[in-house]
Specification:
With 187 residues, this protein is an alpha/beta fold. Helix content is 35%, strand content 22%. The mean pLDDT is 93.
Length: 187
């Protein structure tokens, strides 16, 4: 078997594993959670239930905030798919940053997706998106809203090279791969 055939074989194995992962996620039993109070970009209080925007499903992206170059890269990437993604399910990005800090940073990046601060709400902590040292974990969680109750379904943590920022897949195609490259705030 030549190298190209090996690559195709491995790509198929990865595809098959992703199909298996999707099937397992569908079997996860939903857990009812409380209706958390989050903070809007102008400091206003917004309930998680209000973020469904008339849809049954909500995808929440947990971002570490302005202090993380990698989370900034993920959010830049998300910005390109936020409109079609929000057409399928409600979309929300949360971070521990103060609302005014979020607003200024989002404007400087040209982000067009909804953002809220979870600071002080217990939301990230209750969903295991905080490390024991209090550091925010990046990732995503899915929720449904049924008969006024919110249910948590599935969750994943992000990390460099994951499936949630396609830049890494493109960089992996280059002969030198990542080659010590790290994201920047300005290019």
């Amino acid at each position: 078997m030549n190298i190209h055939e090996e690559i195709k074989k491995l790509e198929q194995e990865i595809f098959d594993k992703k199909e298996s992962l999707r099937a397992l996620r569908k079997k996860v039993e939903a857990v009812e959670i409380k209706d958390y109070e989050l903070s809007g970009l102008e400091g206003e209080k917004i309930l998680l239930s209000q973020c469904f925007n008339g849809q049954e499903e909500l995808l929440v992206i947990f971002n570490m905030g302005q202090s993380c170059k990698y989370c900034t890269l993920w959010a830049d990437n998300l910005n390109g798919i936020s409109k079609p993604l929000a057409d399928r399910a409600a979309l929300l990005v949360v971070s521990p940053d103060a609302p005014e800090q979020q607003a200024a940073f989002a404007e400087s990046r040209g982000w067009d997706f909804p953002m809220l601060s979870h600071k002080g709400s217990g939301f990230a902590q209750d969903l295991n998106m905080l490390q024991e040292n209090g550091m925010q974990m990046p990732g995503a969680s899915s929720f449904t809203l049924k008969e006024g109750k919110i249910y948590h379904h599935s969750q994943v943590h992000f990390g460099p090279g994951d499936n949630f920022c396609n830049l890494w897949d493109f960089v992996d195609l280059l002969p030198k791969g990542v080659n010590n490259w790290v994201p920047k705030y300005e290019y």
